[in-house]
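thought: fold this chain, then report.
action: predict
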Amino acid sequence: MKVVLFGSIRTRMMAFTAFLILAIVGVVVWSWAEDMSDVYYNQKQQEAKMIVTALSNAWTNELVNQNWSQIRLSLNLLTQRNSQFIYILVSDARRSNQIVAASPEAFQEQYFPDLVPVEITKKALETYSYSRLQKTFILRDIEFPRDQMRSRRGERILEAAAGIRSATGEKIGNLRIGVSLKQVRSAVRRAIYKALLVGAFGLSFGLLGAYILALHLTKPVKRLQISAAKIAAGNWQHRVNIYRADEIGALATSFNEMSSALQAMFSRLEKTLDSFERFVPGKFLTVIASDGIENIQVGVAATRLITILFADIRGYTSMSEQMTPMETFTLLNDYLACMGQVINEAGGFIDKYIGDAIMALFENENSGCSLYAALAMQQRLKVFNEERQSKNQPIIKIGIGIHYGEVVMGTIGFTSRIESTVIGDAVNVAARVEGLTRIYDCGILVTEPVVSMLKEREAFHLRLVDDYVKVKGKKDSVAIYELLGA
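observation:
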């Protein structure tokens, strides 16, 4: 059911202004109630100050003579007869402020009872002659007498403290009294009730009008807020259902139009991002686009220790000469799809395709994964060739070279054409090692740096092919191994 509300927000706000006079009356009455609250609280402070001062003077001789039993008897009578006293503690400064008399008695012989926060206790013990008043709260339930709840944990109280001095003026102890503020709160409530009663007749109309107006205004605003949160969380299909003939209704309509535009825009953006990640590997993006794809710049680079795998089809040129361009295109796509899946499953990612060649990268800790990937590529190639043979198509052979070393991952190009790439001597060595597979007639060749990085070398069947090989274009020699299995 659609409910259409007529009248603009301005009209209703003007009508609400008429009730402000009544609201002012209510504020004045409320201020009077606050003043009364201060009066009651000040009275309670004066009472607590007089009581703690009088008792500290009355118990001076008993504390000097260490007549603790008399003090204990007196304060027990006080707490029993006066329900506003939550606790009374008398500590002896000559005994490192040990509590020698307490009501309830459970706190006797303690030093820092868990009645109030520690900082309150410290300030109370620092009191010398004058009384100290501190507003605080109780940390535990107080039952006194037994099974009779006197104060609950978290209740606000007033603590009055005074120093107890001997005739010579030496401080010999402290008196602390926890005074309940229930009477103050009750008196304040009574004052508020009276104040509300005085202004109830005038304020009732104002409150009723304010409530109705707020209800009409806040409900749709809250619904708009909830809808905005849902859209921000990714629920692009969500729309707000608000049907009004005022400015809020117009805002809801604009909001839904904005949601539709955002849904279409982010749908296109997600498709663009998915397409972009098919051109640039996700692991590459973490290096070159740490601040977002939209902030990619030329020259962003990072150094990595990484394992490089090169795979190339042998005799590809002569094979492609005997095939039509479309047949060559289909062959490459089928072959690269098979190899790419194997590399992904082994934990690597393809950096680029160089014609029929594949350049794949493996993280530093995944050097062994590159060997598993090479073996899996050979196994998958067998299945691939069997499928081609069944169709009377020529089979293919590949050579794989693997090397480990330091590379630079980054972006090159200029403003209108940027490309991600991996550059470094290790890349060139890996490509040269792949070329050596033809010379040594091996399917997979692995360099010594890769072998030395293996955590479980015995997991692979490696055969030393040559321990002193100079790769074309390199001065330094390197040992190479043939990977036979795992």
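thought: worth noting. DSSP finds 13 helices and 15 strands in the chain.
final: tokens above.
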